[in-house]
Write a structure and sequence with these properties.
Elements: H1 2-11, H2 16-47, H3 66-84, H4 86-113, H5 116-136, H6 139-143, H7 147-189, H8 191-198, H9 201-238, H10 240-245, H11 249-275, H12 277-301, H13 309-350, E1 371-380, E2 386-396, E3 400-405, H14 411-416, E4 426-431, E5 434-435, H15 441-446, E6 448-452, H16 462-466, H17 475-484, H18 488-492, H19 511-525, E7 529-533, H20 541-555, E8 559-563, E9 575-580, E10 583-588, H21 590-596, H22 599-608
Parallel strand pairs: 3-8, 3-9, 6-7, 7-8
Antiparallel strand pairs: 1-2, 1-4, 4-5, 9-10
Length: 609
Amino acid sequence: MKAFWKILKRYVAPYRGYVGGSVVLNILSAIFNVFSFSLLIPILQILFNISDVQYEFIPWHKGMPFNEISNNAYYYVAQYIAQYGQSHVLLMLCLIFIAIVLVKVACYFGAAAVMVPIRTGVVKDLRMEIYRKILALPLGFFSQERKGDIIARISGDVQEVETSITSTIEMLIKNPILIVIYLFVLFRMSWQLTLFVIIFAPLMIGIISFTGRKLKADSAEAQKYWSDTMSQVEETLGGLRIVKAFRAEKRMDGRFGKVTEDMRRKNTQVAVRQASAHPVSEFLGSAMIAIVLWFGGTLILGETAVIDAPSFMAYMAILYSIIQPIKDLSKAAYGIPKGLASMERIDAILQAENPIREAENPKPLDGFRESIRFEGVSFRYEGGRQVLNNIELEIPKGKTIAIVGASGAGKSTLVDLIPRFFEPTAGRITLDGTDIRDVRVSDLRALMGNVNQDPILFNDSLFNNIAFGKQDATREEVEAAARIAGAHDFICEKEEGYDTNIGDRGVKLSGGQRQRISIARAILKNPPILILDEATASLDTESERSVQEALEKLMAGRTTIAIAHRLSTIKHADEIVVLHEGRIVERGTHEALLALGGYYRKLHDMQAL
């Protein structure tokens, strides 16, 4: 339960006002409920002459036991019956009973209503915290996690937390209040009988606690199967073209069928165990009632009666009312472990360490004036191989530097270190002589624009995709950027023009159109440093030519770092850096490297073939 209270402290604290209101209303509800029992049961005994006991008035005094208070209540009722008649008093008492019940249910409804903002608010806050953490974590974290698993945590696991934890908050506020108030009244009525009842509580709690611990372990495994399911769905949607091309539908169906069957089996196990909560608590409650009836009977029938029959009937009515709160608490005890299992999976994201740390006293960065330098930079993925080894490189302002090499040589990793998507494991990178770790990440990335091999577009309008890097962009600025990128004409051909929605990842556009939108976005941002990651590698010859023209306009007057697969696109670079197995093996202009006859010449000749 320690973990559960930590969750409440983290997420319920902002809603403490609602919690206070719920506490007050639940206390009132419990008090009026006791009044309704105290009024109804003993009075019916007197009205219908169930008992021949004659009540004498006992002077009021401080600390009166419950049976003396009840005695005086019965005395006044008997006096009213003698004065006004049974029918008149019965009507009056029924009206009072209705009024008390009305107030009780109003308090009960109010207590439930004020809990709704807590449940919905906690879920919203939790999802926002996960989403912000996803935005803050470095790219390296997601290279080790499956997207489907992360989606499962922000959807299924958060839903489980809502179902199993936030929905039990009301139970945990209301039921202890009811139990405490009812127990107080029961102690006032007969401390011997109540003490006997309490002896059986540890047995009930022990059985529920054991089952709850087992349920938590099963729930964690069930949520893992849910993550596997979501991951396979995400993989299938992303690779549907390949699945169909290789006629792998049956194979994928078999994979999905296996994981869903495993999830069904585990969910069945969890559901059966959770369904046992009510029968177990029902049996324990009924057993307790039976035992109390036996023990109470011995107190009444004994030679020196500790409690009289009317009080015992009232006692049993209130005792039976305490059973439901105990049942609800048992349901919470079964449900909370499921939520805690999901919360542990969520915390794997929320508590993930971010190696990209902001400087405590960041230095100002208001532009780019001289150069970017790699000084002895090395990089190794966590638990993986060495990707970069002792890189020494200077990128002067206004120059175009091309990075080439075979797949896996470390080209993309080298470039990703500049905007601090990753941190070097050795060495440092400086911008105008300042270590980039000493400036704000947002200031550093504000100087850079990216155009990637696979254009990253969003399910939004063309206008919003181009204006993505500049929130206050005007229509004129967006159109000007689109004209430079060669995108304005095909945008105008769309029925809704710039307001056309391009679908998920720009699926409604061709490859060349998507890339020109990506270029227009970079043009609009107008960054002094431009990073091109094989921006034309996935295009056909005609599209490549038009996109290359747009890129040349974008590169004019900027410092450009271009990763290139097709060497023909970087012939005119000021310097070409050749990477091989994480090391710089050659550098120079296109002509100089060809004349050198080394690794670059080998790459060039292979492409010529």
